[in-house]
Amino acid sequence: MVPSHATLQLSLFADDDYISDKVTFWNSVYGFKMSCMRAKAYDDIVIRTVKPDAVPSRSVTFLKLPLHTVQKDDLTVTGADFVLPAEKEIDQLHGFVLHFDVFFTATREANIQGAPTNFTTGPLGPDTHWQQALALIDTSKSEPAMLKANEQIHGSIALRKGHEYFRELEITIEWQVKNAQSDEQKPDVKHRQKWLMR
Q1: Does a cis peptide bond (omega within 30 degrees of 0) precede residue 3?
Q2: HEC string of 170-182?
Q3: 154 near 178, Cβ under 8 Å?
Q4: Nearest CA to 176 among 164, 161, 188, 158?
Q5: Interior CA angle at 60 toward 58 and 63, to 5°?
Q6: CA 89, CA 150: separation in Å to the nearest integer?
Q7: pTM
Q8: pLDDT tens-digit map of 61-89
C-alpha cells in the first residue's frame, strides 16, 4: 500500500500581519464597526498556506497511522499530549498549525523515523497541493500568551467526528505556557478551545 504510514503534526502559529489583515481588520472597516464578523474567525479551522516565518516552533507528532492496519476507531484521538518549545521570542501566540506527513516504506514493520521517501504538507517543507489547517486562538476568551525562546506550550489535542455533520471534524486543544525560570514566576494558566473543520 502506498503510502505506508502517515502522521498528524502540530506546531505553533504567530503572524501579526495575518491577524491584522484577516481578524482585527473587522474592528473598523472604513470607519464602520463590524466586529460581529470577527467572532466566527475563531470557530472554524482555516485552510491556508502558512508562511514558514509564522511558525515559531518545530512540529510534533500527535498521531501515527500505520495505513496497512488502521481502523476507523484509530482516527479518533481522545487526548494526545504534546510539548511545543518556542524556538524564538514572539509577542503573541495566535494559534496552532496542523498538517500531515506521509511515508513510503518497503515493509509494514519499517521504522518511519528517517524513512528515505516521504513528504510533508507542513509550512516548513516545499509547497504541495495540500495546505495547512490553522486554528486561531480566541483572545477574547484566552489571555494572549507572549513566549520567550525556549518557553514551552504543554497541552493535549483531541480529534473526533462532528456531532451534527459526519464530514465535520471537531478539534479541541488544551494548553498552558510553562514559563522559563525567572524571579517572577507567573502561575500557569490553562486554556481550552474547540474548532470545527468543515
Answers
A1: yes
A2: EEEEEEEEECCCC
A3: yes
A4: 188
A5: 155
A6: 8
A7: 0.92
A8: 999 999 989 999 999 999 999 999 999 99
